[in-house]
Amino acid sequence: MSVIYVLLAISIIIAVGFFIAFVIAVKKGQYDDSYTPSVRMLFEDELVKENSKTQIITNKD
Amino acid sequence: MGHKTCFHCGLDSESKTITFDDKSFCCNGCKTVYEIFSVNDLNCYSDLQEAPGATPKEIEGKYDFLDNEKIIEKLLDFNDNHTQIVSLYIPHIHCSSCIWILENLNKLNADIGASVVDFGKKTVRITFDSENYSLKKLVTLLNSIGYEPYISLEDYETGKKKIDRSLIYKLGVAGFAFGNVMFLSFPEYFQVEGFWLEQYKPVFRWLMFSFSLPVVIYSAQDYFISAYKGLASKILNIDVPIVLGILVLFLRSAAEIIFDLGTGFFDSLTGLVFFLLVGKFFQKKTYAFLSFERDYKSYFPIGITRMTTEGIEESVQVYDIKKGDRLIIRNEELIPVDCILIKGNARIDYSFVTGESEAVSKQSGDKLFAGGKQCDGIIEVDVLKSVEQSYLTQLWSNDVFKTNKDNAFTSLTNSISKHFTIAILLIAFIATSFWLFTDSSKALNVFTAVLIIACPCAIALSAPFTFGNLLRILGKKKFYLKNANVIEQLAKINTVIFDKTGTITSNKETQISYDGAELSANEERLLKNTLRGSNHPLSRALYNILDQNDNISLAHYQEHIGQGIEANFQTDTIKVGSANFVGYKTETASLNTTVHISTNTDYKGKFTFYNAYRKGLSTLFNRLKKDYDLAILSGDNAGEKENLTKLLPPKTKLLFNQKPEDKLEYIKYHQAEGAKILMVGDGLNDAGALAQSDVGIAISENVNVFSPACDAILDASKFNQLYHYIKASKSAIKIIKWSFVLSFLYNVIGLYFAVTGQLEPVIAAILMPLSSISIVVFTTIATNYIGRHLE
Predict the structure, then answer these.
(1) Which of B58, B493, B606, B684 could pair with B678 as two cysteines, CB 3.0-4.6 Å apart?
(2) B42 or B244, which is more confident?
(3) How far is CA B6 from CA B41, B120, B717, in A?
(4) Measuring CA to CA, which residue among B572, B448, B612, B582 is closest to residue B516?
(5) In this structure, what are the phi and psi dihedrals at residue B375, rounded to the nearest 5 degrees?
(6) Which residues of A touch B173 (CB under 8 A)?
(7) What does DSSP assign to residue B40?
(8) Residues A12, B118: C-beta atoms closer than 8 Å
(9) For residue A32, what are the domain limits?
């Protein structure tokens, strides 16, 4: 067996893997709303910071 | 006063006045977030509960219909055990604070689980525990923090909508195959004659073949279907030559590798389908938060309060209302059926239905029509007809609402394609017969090569990219089109018809002029203070234009419904209202809305209300008159006729007292005479006319609130730009024609290779993407150039 078959097999498997990932992403609805997640992503940070603060306060209590 | 922006999110807050802590905000959401952050030192989780921002807009009993199990069941997306999921449309969602607040609802109430906002659609999907919580409580909560969901009869009808994602899948498959086939075909393009390549050539070729199979079978299936449909109805649409190209490409490539003649055109084939689908995807831009398909159902409430014979109030579904039922209509509620007024003060705003701007007062025993909005307290009515049989809803049984406009016209691309297909077939046959006599071995080769190279990929792409891009540009200018076809239709129109109330006039402003004896300072103060107590729209409008005065407390104040107001202060008495009410006898019938004033039995004069026309109306009409026939169809009386004749070019036709059906018939009549009509309207009363016209544009002061079914929605602030938008659509057609010329040039070059029998796969692989990409670049640059000249 020539190495070319191995390489071809690997490259196709990887490509198909990405393709399956794409199909799953579409199926889950990740392409339905392309705006909100970009905003939501920015909130996360804010909340984590506050969260730790809240915990400190509750600890004091 | 400078330009006010929201302190929290930076959006324009001029239109609303929410101030807190000397800072202005665009919405309650931003204010709440600001309060939480500033007052509570970022400690937002525990303090969200105390967030005020409660708007007292809530009307008691408004959401009573959410107690009705049947209605709840229809609204919920999911209902199992104690978990319920609902998707609510909230028109108010407009900034990032809104997302933040709505996605943290669970901090306001522990029974609310996850909530996910879709900003584009302006919806929020909320999961909650139905054991301790209910949909009604949830909606009331949302209302209290300033996010009132809009629930209409439409939600009741449409079940769970299925999202069509097939285009993305097809695009994905084509792109995947295109990329891989490209790589696999490289070795042969850079072929170095040698043992190595010879040995592995079949592997590469058969791999390419298998990659192209799903593209032809799955990704391109829409083209096959469309071409078949076109042929079945004897139309040579653009998909016919495309399908011809795809088929020939695939069959010839397959034959080449089977008989080991060459490498085939698999890269061109997959690339072609991929580019075509990209064009389709690009053109499919839609405004998810706008709906162009609304009918009366999106205006009507889902539930209404019915009084049983025992006098108990209950919520019922609107469709369950039967003739003879007794209904209770609250302030600001819409009357869903034709009925007779039994009890209460009815002041009905029919602006939705007739375009008449003033609310009318009705006495007990009068007939009320569906679509009117009660503006004054609670009334009781007896039902005359069911929802579907009511006067207003019958408009929708007109055939015009059932026909699909898009099917009725042939697009520019399809009309070109007819000639194109015939020409290509001719060239193919002539070239083939020539080669049959010269070198018959090459004949089949030439025949397929012509069909491959002439595949009108560039032609098929020019319209989607031009229109798609212009659609986006116009969207940024607040002119929202339903789809790309509208641009083409818009370029063809030759008659423009306007509705009056709400379309060329502004709903927000009225012009008021006074005529009569001058009022003394004391009288003016009394008048202002009298008006302050009244909620009648005319009183509010008048109150706003009068100069600021000291507040005085009136000794006596009485509002006579449907007539006017009477008030005393010290020794002065004032009467404000209709001519009869103030005791003015000599009034000749005036068509304009007037308010008369008398003090101490002396008649003083009258205020006349004129519609305030939108800015730039006159300029717009004068620009339009050069190229278009103009007309105004108004549901109102002829009171403004004199004013309008002065304002507008002399050729403009003015027609008053037009009922919704009259407008529709007027348009139909002129269409029969060959006119291509653009109708500009705003209310439900224009719905028929908008549907009948070639292009129907709805004017909206706030695009998030509802406009009738139409082809395009234009923000009222951009009304004076209408002429330029029509011009832009005409330029778009020009761009497409130029890109047709460009793609013909490519075709000529390609055909040279094809008919001389020298078409190599590598030439096709270069020429095809090159032509497609250069068309995309050309149309994009050209449309952006047009867009830059728009305001």
Answers:
(1) B493
(2) B244
(3) 20, 21, 20
(4) B582
(5) -120, 15
(6) 19
(7) T
(8) no
(9) 3-60
Q: How many angstroms separate the most distant Cα atoms in chain B?
A: 117
Q: Is the pLDDT at B557 greater than 50, yes or no?
A: yes
Q: Which of residues 143-172 of B touch A (CB under 8 A)?
A: 163, 165, 168-169, 172
CA angle (B598, B603, B609) in 5-degree steps: 70
Q: Where are the alpha helices (DSSP H) in B477-616?
A: 485-492, 521-532, 537-545, 579-582
B605 backbone φψ class: left, alpha, beta (φ>0; ψ -120 to 50)? left
Flag whether residue B626 sits within 8 Å of chain A, measured between CB atoms: no
DSSP state of B319: G
At how many degrees (to 10) do helices B266-283 and B761-788 cross?
20
Place of tokens 């071409």: B227
Can you give the C-alpha Rg of chain A in angstroms? 22
SS3 B512: strand
Q: Are B677 and B495 in contact (CB under 8 A)?
A: yes
CA B533 – CA B540 distance, rounded (Å): 9
Q: What order of strands is seen across the sheet that includes strand B360-362?
A: B360-362, B346-349, B373-374
Rounded to the nearest angstrom, the minimum Cα separation between A54 and chain B is 6
Which of the pair, B613 or B214, is modelled with greater confidence?
B214
Interior/surface letters B177-193, b for 16+ CB within 10 angstroms, e for the rest? bbbbbbebbeebeeeee
Closest approach of chain B CAs to the CA of A28, in angstroms?
Answer: 11
What domains sit in chain B, N to C, each tagged with a CATH number?
166-286+412-465+731-788 (no CATH), 302-335+337-389 (2.70.150.10), 482-506+614-728 (3.40.50.1000), 507-613 (3.40.1110.10)
Q: Checking DSSP bridges between strand B367-368 and strand B303-307, what pairing results, if any? A: unpaired
Amino acid code (one letter) for B351: S
Quick one: DSSP state of residue B61? T
Chain segment B476-513, per-residue pLDDT in tens: 888 888 888 888 889 889 999 998 877 888 766 667 77
Q: What is the DSSP letter of B657?
A: S
Mean pLDDT check: name the lowest of A57-61, B445-449, B592-596, B616-620.
A57-61
CA distance B614 to B705: 19
Answer whether A33 touches B (CB < 8 Å).
yes
Domain count, chain A: 1
Of A26, A33, A49, the CB nearest to B165: A26
How far is residue B123's CA from residue B149's CA, in Å, rounded to a whole number? 9
Contact B761, B714 (CB under 8 A): no
